[in-house]
Amino acid sequence: MPPTPARWHDAPLRYRRWRDAKLAAAPRDAGALLVEVRDPAALSAAERGALAERCARHNLAFYRSARRDEDKALPRELGRQLGLVRLDANWLADEDGISPIAVRAGQGPAAGFIPYTDRAIKWHTDGYYQPPGRAIRGMILHCVRPALRGGANRLLDPELAYIALRDLDPEHVRALMADDAMTIPARTDEDGVARATQSGPVFSVDAGGQLHMRYTARKRSIEWKADAATGAAVAALEAVLDGDASPVSPFVLGLRLEAGMGLVSNNPLHDREAFADDPGRPRLLYRARYLDRVADPAVLG
Fold first, then answer.
1. What's the predicted TM-score (pTM) here?
2. Residue 5: inside a domain
3. Residue 295 falls within a domain, yes or no?
4. DSSP strand E in 49-172: where?
5. Which CATH number does the domain housing residue 36 bear?
6. What is the pLDDT of residues 222-242, one digit of tens each?
7. Which of 27, 59, 105, 126 has the fewest CB atoms within 10 Å, i.e. is most exposed?
8. Orientation of helix 158-168 relative to helix 228-242, angle to 10°
């Protein structure tokens, strides 16, 4: 298994070795993380190992298959083969825990949320509003139909964002590891509070030593800790992600998922460009979000 990042103030020499190895191995093209698979719901041992190995090293992998059917069991079966079993059954998902991502104008409560529109979505990790005990650590996206035009994603391994920010100033990382660094206000509906206010860090390290990132670039419905250190850290992170001379620019992977393609990941940073649908064949993706990370390749065998 690849080495894991130490906390910002721990083991600086070990961290430096991890950092240097991470940057040396970081892919600069999405094609380097693409695995051809016959059927995502029934992976061969080699296909499973290739996807898990890429996730272990880079926190994401892409696959391409000939599957074009609308089968919501596909992402669930794919996840199970990779150690993703604890589905996050969020309130907008279907009863099986899988979310069909499509434009839902005027169709229920999901219509008011950006993923269910054709609008662009800024940098974020999924489930940034979740409590720490239900952090989204794994995610699958499977494309049934792409949009007529647009809808591509940019993706970035959160560990590379962490490195870039720490290189600028370790104090930025410390500020964003505070338990009250980022707060998502409560969501209310006609019955009252539907989701309580949720505060937490941007960067944290889990019990297994793995870095986790919780972030959104949106400006509304978010409150940052009101001190100078956090303000400076947030500004630096925004510049890292979208600055003209960003150190992570070479590592941002752009890809438009086509029919039969998908993403397997440990919930990386990602965005989405706006798109235009074909009314007869509208864009449809299946999303599965998990409380698990993709299993270590050695565990999968």
1. 0.92
2. no
3. no
4. 60-64, 99-101, 121-124, 138-145, 149-150, 153-156
5. 3.60.130.10
6. 999 999 999 999 999 999 999
7. 105
8. 120
